[in-house]
Model the fold of this input.
Amino acid sequence: MDEKKGRFGEYGGQYIPETLMAAVQELEAAYAAYSVDKAFQEELGELLANYAGRPSLLYFAEKMTADLGGAKIYLKREDLNHTGSHKINNVLGQVLLAKKMGKSRVIAETGAGQHGVATATAAALMGMECEIFMGKEDTIRQALNVYKMRLLGSKVNEVTSGTMTLKDAVNETMREWTSRMDDTLYVLGSVMGPHPFPTLVRDFQKVIGKEIKAQLMQAEGKLPDALIACVGGGSNAMGTFYEFIGEESVQLIGCEAAGLGLDTGQHAATMAMGSVGIFHGMKSYFCQDEYGQIAPVYSISAGLDYPGIGPEHAHLSEISRAEYVPVTDEEAVVAFEYLSRTEGIIPAIESAHALAYAAKLAPQLGKGKIIVVTLSGRGDKDVAAIARYRGEDLHD
Amino acid sequence: MTRITKAFEGNKALITFVTGGDPDIETTELLVLEMEKAGADLIEIGIPFSDPIAEGIVIQQADERALAAGCTTDKLFDMVARLRQKTEIPLVFMTYINPIFTYGKERFMAKCKECGIDGVIVPDMPFEEKGELQEFCDNHNICLISMIAPTSGDRAAKIANQAEGFLYCVSSLGVTGVRSDINMDIAGLIEGVKKVSGIPCAIGFGISSPEQAKKMASISDGVIVGSAIVRLVAQYGKESPAPVSEFVKGLKSGISTVSE
Done:
């Protein structure tokens, strides 16, 4: 893969307005320098260890394993990180990079609010001005996160264009960056967008897979048979997979949101139902119509409610190195409840998509095999919504 | 000589933009003809896109209205074919890379040729990615129009060297939309281009009055006006051809006082 041009096979690239090219090239140059800068890496390592709480646990889900009666299930506990998800890994890297670049302001999109909260947190820590763009629909679904971001000192801009969800938040953040780039860095939340973001975000997230490898080697003395992670843009999945791409025996499985079902039109299953397109700076797979209009997508999970997927995932799928499976709202909610009851861990509804598929795969793989599921975030933010899904009259 | 080159012959070119299919295809068709009569030298027709990241709120909403009214790429091709029976004014499509890519790059450019489109402007396809479309444009003599921005720096000369038709010079940072003040050093940007290329330079983004048009025309080969026209279309809908015509006449008189 020719990473110099930001391509993963034919996917990736830099499809952005001319005005933004200078900003993206500035980031590219800064990242090339700092990614090999020892002092930068040490400072980031320090933040990950003493602020984010890394390494995160690799937890053997013994009761779940016994109950499912098949492969051993381990959970990579990204939910235990500071701010409650894997998003902190990336934002600490990007906000530190922004600071080294001499920027004083960061902007970011957010869907569920996890990336927004993480960015606001890192900005507070590092003394940067911060503005978050969030679709109006999502500000309603995740009202508590909106308040958290404000509490952390960030401004939250409600996005009312288009479908008022994650893709529109990305549009608006790109527009904002186009108008102000001298003091501002766009801290993108996933392995998507124009080069160098897919590479840079993956590099900041690959710590997940590195830790899994070392921790499992210590616990079991071998590699896992399958890695499972949920996929919206795909950052926790890419971070989980990357270390294992060369380990052909390890199955890599991404779980995308099938919403109400693939045949209902109400889903965000980009790989299952989408086609190749060019949007948000990258060539990849998108949910779109015959004229290339980006389709409105739906998922119970605001974090997976995105009509595209990172270009490296598109490439891994094309070369059959990873597979992508759809998981419905209902299956995810059942898994959300199941893990809460069985292990005493309330997962993010995003991560519950991965758990749902793990529950299917464990008996199929059978005993003696090992599955690692990345628990990308904790479920506190979702409790009220799941209660409502189950018909309870509960509000945040 | 191509139709686009002719637009810049002997005068400062007035380039106007409308979003295709807003409020409906029939009105767009009328608007094109009225703008030509009012003095436009080249007309850009926007193929609406669901997520126009380079546009400000005025054109975003026009795209939403057009799509909601059922506008499609095919309907605009048909409209252009009808217009070509009536006018020889240069017509270019402005749209995002995805509608072209998804339609089929070869098929899209072949259709452009067939119905009489002269060029395409693709705001989310920078110089480094133009290989995506170049050969397909070349196959059908469709002019692939390049853009430069105040942030282009050293890249501006490189872009200008390979530019076709005219060079779209973005006046300011940010997205399209009406601005009361354009304060970037656009004159310096154009002077840099002129040192390396004879390509006509037209300034766009934020031009909304005859005075601004005059000022921008004095330092370039033409001006592009979009959001200010689309705003009138939003206000007057099907009745917009008359006020748009008046407005374009005003712009034309503004720039025709600028000597060559």
In short: Strands of chain B lie at 13-19, 42-46, 91-94, 119-121, 143-148, 167-170, 201-204, 222-225.
